[in-house]
Design goal:
single chain, mainly alpha
Length: 78
Amino acid sequence: MQEGSYSAVWQDPQNTALPADMSASELNRLFASCMPRLQRTARRLLRNSEDSEDALQEGLLLAYQNLKQFQGDRKSVV
């Protein structure tokens, strides 16, 4: 997945899934900051580039859809 190509995952004209205090550009920066680590982890676990890209895209979509329930004070599991 090329840098920036994942932005299409959460294109939502009304930003309906964003918390009220988060802009689309902030979401883009958040996801972009996580991408290198997520890509490495997916490739290591799945051992296949195409599968890791698919899994990462599905994961980003789920993250976006559930963003309003995100609790930023929790520690990362990954």
